[in-house]
Specification:
single chain; alpha+beta; Immunoglobulin-like; 2 domains; four-stranded antiparallel β-sheet; three-stranded antiparallel β-sheet; 7 strands; 18% helix; globular
Length: 130
Amino acid sequence: MSRIALRRTLTALACVFLVGMLVACGGGGGANGKGGGLPFVKPTVPVVISYRSSAWGKGKVAIFSNQTASRLTVTVNLTSASGKEPVSGVLDLDPNGKREIGWMEGWKFESGDRVEVTHPDYSSTSGTIP
């Protein structure tokens, strides 16, 4: 066998070995101990963040849409671009449901504000108010 063919064979075997090890390491436990994959590879939290102008008052309203058929309780972190104190809170989302946060809920969104959604079983998602 030539050196190039031997090197390719060894490289292919090393890749197969590494993939096998990754699957074996993640087969029994996710980050929460419930199984479901590698502990360091989490899907993004299934919540879409969109925005609209406020119908009353000023500012924008953030809309949180649950993309699953299950109830989802997430943490929402709000950071102001103008230096207001950051705010965090828990948001319960019905299956395939939506919730809105705006000035009536105590946060008047302005351009540049940052919104982050977290959940222990998922990697976070975030957005910035346009």
